[in-house]
Amino acid sequence: MAQIAREQSEPGGAGNQVTDFFQRLADYPRRMNKFFHEVRVEMKLVNWPSWEDVKSTTTVVIVTVAFFAVYFLFTDTIFSRLEGVVWRHFKH
Fold first, then answer.
1. Helical H runs in the chain?
2. How far apart are CA 17 and CA 13, in angstroms?
């Protein structure tokens, strides 16, 4: 009994942890409100790309992906045929 009373009266005791928890829980709506306010302020500072920038970068991405798709199709086909030639050569 004396130990519990001592822990609650000492800084950092079990009683302090409980009250800290409830204090943080009570501050939660205020902290969330502050967080969303800061998000709105930061979003106003974002330099958004223009529609022309979005279209041009999307086109570059699509062309690049198509190029690499054809490139890997080509190299995969060549290496597959080369593998078949090597297997047929060593099979006989």
1. 2-9, 14-45, 51-91
2. 7
Instruction: Tell me: pLDDT of 12 over 80.
Output: no
DSSP character at residue 7: H
Give the start-to-end residue ranges of the domains of the chain. 1-46, 48-92
Beta strands in 43-86 (DSSP E): none
Residues 57-83 pLDDT 10s: 999 999 999 999 999 999 999 999 999
pTM of the model: 0.51
Burial (CB < 10 A; 0-12, 13-18, 19+), residue 35, is exposed
Beta-carbon contacts of 50 under 8 Å, excluding residues fewer than 6 positions away, are none
The mean pLDDT value for 45-50 works out to 93
